[in-house]
Amino acid sequence: MPRQPAPAPRARSPTPPRPSSPPPKPKPLPYNPRRRTPAGSVLEPLTQDEVHFYHTRLGTGTRRLAKRKRSPSFEPPSSQPPQKRSRDTGLVVDHYNARPEVGIEQRRESRIIGLRNFNNWIKSVLITRFAHPVLSKSAVTDGGGGRGGRGGLRGKVLDLGCGKGGDLNKWSKARIKEYVALDIASISVDQARTRWESLSRSTRFEASFAALDCYTEPLTRGIPPAKLAQPFDVVSMQFCMHYAFESVAKVRCMLLNVTRWLRPGGVFVGTIPNAEQLLMRLDQVPADSELSFGNSVYSIKFESREPRPLYGHRYSFFLQDAVEDVPEYVVHWEPFVQIAAEYGLHPIYKKEFHDVFEEFQEHSEFKPLLQRMNVIDSNGETEMDEFQWEAANIYIAFAMTKR
Fold first, then answer.
1. Do residues 62 and 181 share a domain?
2. Helix (H) or strand (E) run with residue 368 in it
3. Mean pLDDT across the chain, nearest whole number?
4. Domain for residue 20, yes or no?
5. Scanning 35, 80, 130, 141, which has its CA 20 to 30 A from the CA of 263?
6. Secondary structure (DSSP) of 271-299
7. What is the tally of structural domains in the chain?
8. pLDDT tens by residue, 128-144
9. How far apart are CA 345 and CA 403, in angstroms?
10. What is the percent of the chain with per-residue pLDDT over 70, rounded to a whole number?
């Protein structure tokens, strides 16, 4: 706002008139209002994605809105009404909040350590193969100073469903500049933050953490606008996207959170259950048996054989030392690709974990990584038995790009 002119000097009071004379009329003050609040808000039309979000998530009253006033300031989560959680969502939150954070030595003693190491190798391949090239072209940089003389940091990552921070080292190796992590389980978020704080200063990147249900709420409820002003280069969702498939509304909210702050040319990488494997195994269950299958490492139990809806196709999942009969949902791939295209996301990679291994086990970079990540030892032997190997292939790895 232009600076207001200084008030004119006050004139001396005139000589009082004689008692018989009427008092002079006061001169009107010039119109000179002063603004008490900054002029920063404007009315902007809602985007189509926002219209859909408000129609499906915030009630019928918002359907009458054509415009809304956008505030330049961040509204804290407490100022907005909380979304009602489904019973399944509550079970998922309680489960992951109750799981303790264990040290490296205890993780090595896990019954499924071979599977854990293999899954981490798969994620490292996915991140290196598809995220690294995009990060190298990012506009988000530290100016080249770098950390510890290792060169500049570059790139911005959004980790939806970050859990306890199991991928922090992977992003550190990618030498990213900024990392924003969210998860529905608040205790897991606190543990992820603690794990990030334990990284050495020479490998630590900027990081922000928040507890948020990214399937029912926009990111703006947990992340300040300043953190969203610069778009992300990569969005990652590892072993968690299937929880959104409880309903189409949750899937659309999730996709809106993925794509709204992802730059054009950015990538969306993730790992999800393999619907083809799950439904094939379901079909193989005898008619007079319980609708479950698996082995000593994992088990999956469906509630019914039919119907098989695109959303809300529920089953219970157990994985030794990791997941205790938590409700999950089938992700039907082709319908997911179709709805993702509405948000500008298009697949560039999709393979079962076994096929990812076949593709990259002899790769010049990823073959040595198998040994460094303890998937195999120097003799080529592995701690993965046949039961863990079977459990690994109930997942697929995917990558999408935003056009």
1. no
2. helix 366-372
3. 82
4. no
5. 80
6. EEE-HHHHHHHHHHS-TTS-SEEE-SSEE
7. 2
8. 999 999 999 999 998 76
9. 7
10. 74
Query: How far apart (Å, rounded) are the C-alpha atoms in residues 324 and 303?
Result: 16
The per-residue pLDDT for range 56-90, each reduced to its tens digit, is 443 333 333 233 333 333 333 434 455 566 777 87
Which residues pair with residue 319 across a beta bridge? 298, 323
Asked, for residue 27, whether it belongs to a domain, the answer is no
Residue 123 in marked binding region: yes
Looking at the structure, tell me whether residues 237 and 265 fall in a common domain: yes
Check if the beta carbon of residue 161 is closer than 8 Å to that of residue 237: yes
**Token representation of residue 303:** 């509630």
Annotated binding-site residue? 213: yes
Same domain? For 47 and 137 the reply is no
Q: What is the DSSP string of 296-343?
A: SSEEEEES-SS---SS--EEEEEETTTEEEEEEE---HHHHHHHHHTT
161 in a labelled binding site: yes
Q: Are 295 and 391 in contact (CB under 8 A)?
A: yes
Both structure tokens of 263: 């730059």
Judge whether 119 is annotated as a binding position: yes
Same domain, 49 and 124: no
Retrieve residue 80's tokens: 């907005």
This prediction has a pTM of 0.77
Closest by CA to 198, choosing from 162, 155, 164, is 164
pLDDT tens-digit readout, 65-74? 233 333 333 3
Q: Are residues 202 and 269 in the same domain?
A: yes
Same domain, 325 and 357: yes
Sheet of 345-352: strand order equals: 206-211, 178-183, 156-160, 232-238, 262-273, 395-402, 345-352
Strand, coil or helix: what is 123?
Answer: helix
> What's the domain range around 141?
87-402
User: What SS3 state is found at 371?
Assistant: helix
Write out 352-366 in H/E/C secondary structure.
EHHHHHHHHCCCCCH
pLDDT (mean) for 149-169: 89
Alpha carbons 393 and 357: distance in angstroms, whole number: 11
Tokens 């992300």 — which residue? Answer: 232
Total length of the chain: 403
For 251-283, give one letter per residue: b (16+ CB within 10 A) or e. Answer: bbbbbbbbbbbbbeebbbbbbbbbbebbbebbe
